[in-house]
Write a structure and sequence with these properties.
Rossmann fold; 5 strands
């Protein structure tokens, strides 16, 4: 469920594009940047097309998003309400317990995203780890499947 109902439900912003938008059932959100997204995002979107617990977000300029978020947090000095940054609005659509699966070849480009709204994160492709596209897609798929299994187990363990 959207925690900020007053905000637009648009699928894209200037720097962020929802390839598979989140829902109230989303347990895992894959976030890709330009170093991994071109091959991994379409494959994962197809693979998890019928999975309501999966969302997929592509970031166009992660450094610009990071700078905006850091500057906003640093400039907020009082008890008043500050305007949320683009990345805060986008990640704010995810359920509170949703896990972020960060898919990149440059770890530092996405490692800050867990701090934006407090979502737990898992890095998928450490820098320079996989050169073959097929292996990248396979590793990303395995990671998402494992994260989905963990989420379902965590949510339903008390019912078993």
């Amino acid at each position: 469920m959207n925690r900020y109902p007053d905000e637009s439900k648009s699928a894209a912003t200037e720097q962020c594009v929802w390839i598979r938008p989140p829902s109230s059932l989303t347990e895992v959100c894959m976030i890709v940047d330009s170093t991994a997204g071109i091959f991994v995002a379409p494959a994962l979107s197809d693979r998890f097309a019928d999975t309501a617990q999966f969302a997929l977000l592509s970031l166009n300029d992660t450094e610009s998003l990071r700078r905006e978020w850091v500057a906003s947090a640093a400039s907020h000095t009082g008890p008043g309400i500050r305007a949320r940054t683009e990345i805060e609005r986008v990640l704010g659509r995810l359920p509170v317990g949703c896990r972020l699966a960060l898919c990149t070849q440059t770890v530092r480009s996405l490692d800050w995203l867990g701090s934006v709204c407090g979502h737990p994160c898992r890095m998928i492709l450490p820098a320079d780890s996989l050169s073959d596209v097929g292996w990248k897609v396979e590793e990303a798929t395995r990671t998402v499947q494992a994260a989905l299994c963990e989420a379902v187990s965590r949510r339903w363990r008390d019912c078993l």
